[in-house]
Amino acid sequence: MSSTVTIKNPATGEAVREVPLHSKQEVEAAVARLHEAFPAWSRQAASHRAGLLKKWHQLILENQDMLASLITQENGKPLKEARGEVVYAANYIEYYAEEARRVFGKTLPGAANKRLYVTKEAVGPVAAITPWNFPAAMITRKAAPALAAGCTFVIKPAPNTPLTAMELVRLGHEAGIPEDVLQFVNGDGAEIGEVFTSSPLIRKITFTGSTPVGKLLIKNSADTVKHVSMELGGHAPLIVAEDADIDLAVEHTMASKFRNAGQTCVCANRIFVQENVLEEYAAKLAAKAEALQVGNGLEEGTDIGPLINAQGFEKVKGQIEDAKAKGASVLTGARYEEDAEAGTYFVHPTVLTNVDRSMDIMHVETFGPVAPIVSFSTLDEAIDMANDTPFGLAAYFFTENYRTGHYLHERLHYGIVGWNDGAPSAAEAPFGGMKESGLGREGGSEGIALYLETKYLSMGL
User: Fold this and answer.
1) How far apart are CA 261 and CA 275, in angstroms?
2) N or C: which terminus of the chain carries fewer CB neighbours within 10 A?
3) How far apart are CA 282 and CA 284, in angstroms?
4) What is the pLDDT of residues 47-94, one digit of tens each?
5) pLDDT tens track for 83-134
6) 424 pLDDT higher than 80
């Protein structure tokens, strides 16, 4: 190992653990081992791979408290959310343990003297790059289908949150997955990304993160014509129609907007409320937001943890202050707790009204606990504003009218849509975006398809 780095708790600034940083040569060696392990792993019976995944799933659940504590220490999210993430992450492993045995081929009708067959096989060694906001789930929803399909897998976790990844890999090895089949590397993101994209031994890159980085990975993967799947930025709209159940809409807005202190790619970033229910909705949302407790995620009762770093804090604070300067009203929040010396940054849950398209918060993904509310009169007006973005990851709407619901669903250009549902993610459902929000889907049968090649055999008789 060339060096180490100290991982700190973003709520306190305290050191959690030192982790190794791998040199370029060590990353290249890991890729070589991945390549060497691929033939034997891909030829294992699907039932064998499924059995190891089931053991991994069980070990994760048995170590739920340890993993949740680790997530909170390195990420900052409240412990109750971290526990939920561990279960959610384990669900992907359980689901793909079952899907491993459902990779089907087919026969085709052909000439009388021929037999035509289509089969599926693993694409090859896979390299994954994951973000800090869900340090367990973002890994398992990539690793589980890859391993189930017969691919070998190396993970490069975010520099802020490598500890969860390291523990997940350790538990995978404890479950019996060979060490060369499932690996992790820590280090410089640009350097490791260059190794992954340039190596002919890596046959697929899977990435969750920002759109600019995703575009760079796609471009750099072109020379070796790799498979790529990308879950990139979002700017989710949430529409509340006049016929919505307002209490339900508020409840689900809270679940979407303030989970992980608003640091999720699918959280509601722009809230559009029909004008005749605006006052009721805004008042109820502000009251709920005001009641949320801000603090250290390890402390009982905490609802909102810290932002991950100074850069994230300045972005969120800047959007709030820009909105205020341009005429937005603060119903609650717009309060900050910053300790640059300790490296801790908190933003209190904020609800803004009188928001318009002149404000930065309407155009740039926030990644913080801020709910900007915009009034609209007609559904088409709301749809136009909702679609006015290059992103298309997630969208939400609330209505009790089935005609209104179908009208909105068919006109919103988003890969994930929640109707009266602020938490639509599930292991069995495809997750991914349209436009500049990414390529491919994770979860469901669509998720394992990304790790499979199609082979056609024409056999003469």
Assistant:
1) 27
2) C
3) 6
4) 999 999 999 999 999 999 999 999 999 999 999 999 999 999 999 999
5) 999 999 999 999 999 999 999 999 999 899 999 999 999 999 999 999 999 9
6) yes
Query: If you classify domain 3-232+437-460 with CATH, what class do you get?
Result: alpha beta
DSSP code of residue 368:
S
Confirm whether 231 is a catalytic residue: yes
Q: Would you kindly state where each structural domain of the chain is located, as residue ranges?
A: 3-232+437-460, 236-426
**pTM of the prediction?**
0.95
Rounded distance, CA 152 to CA 239, Å? Answer: 42
Nearest in space to 204 (alpha carbons), one of 448, 457, 455 = 448
Active-site residue identified among 74, 151, 265, 436: 265
Nearest to 338 by CA among 368, 371, 314: 314
Active-site residue, from 231, 365, 436, 442: 231
Residues in the chain, overall count: 461
Q: Which amino acid is at 57?
A: H
Would you say the CATH fold of 236-426 matches that of 3-232+437-460? no
- Catalytic (active site) residue 267: no
